[in-house]
Amino acid sequence: MKTTVLVFHPSIATSRVNARLTHAAEAIDGVEVRYLYGLYPDFRIDVEAEQRVLEAADRIVWQFPLYWYSSPALLKQWEDDVLTYGWAYGSTGTALHGKELAVAVSPGAAAERYTPTGLYQVTVDQLLLPFATTSKLIGTRFVEPFVTAGAMQISDADLERQAEAYRSWLSAPAC
Known about the structure:
Elements lengths: L2 E5 L9 H10 L4 E5 H4 L7 H10 L2 E7 L7 H10 L17 E7 L17 H4 L1 H10 L2 E2 L3 E2 L8 H16 L4
Parallel strand pairs: 1-2, 1-3, 3-4, 4-5, 4-6
Helix pairs in contact: 1-7
């Protein structure tokens, strides 16, 4: 199974959590990691190149920090540009049918804040519903997200455990 991890972090060089997770992903055979902010710092996305990358993958992972309860801006721009009508959806848009789509997300706040009774009164899964709905539209199977909650205060030991869990999650026959 070929897995492609698309990393949408606007400052991966200064990231602790996403940098560690991508390092773990890069160590897995059959996993390609692409840094989208590095490829498209001007937000001018090479649509044909991105579509070829997606066509070659069996599992597509969007990895990003949770910003304002959503994704960084480039992921939204990428979706708008790459997931085109007639290619990704619509009556002839079947290019991604049967593939897996997953997200690996890192909210800064602790997990207990993302509960119905927590500070935000919403779960991370609820915040990720637009991605699950996109998956349905484009004919992919949305798999259980990989969540690294508490990214702002995660200990080094917990981050190492999370990186190992990410490697296992990415290596699983089906996420």
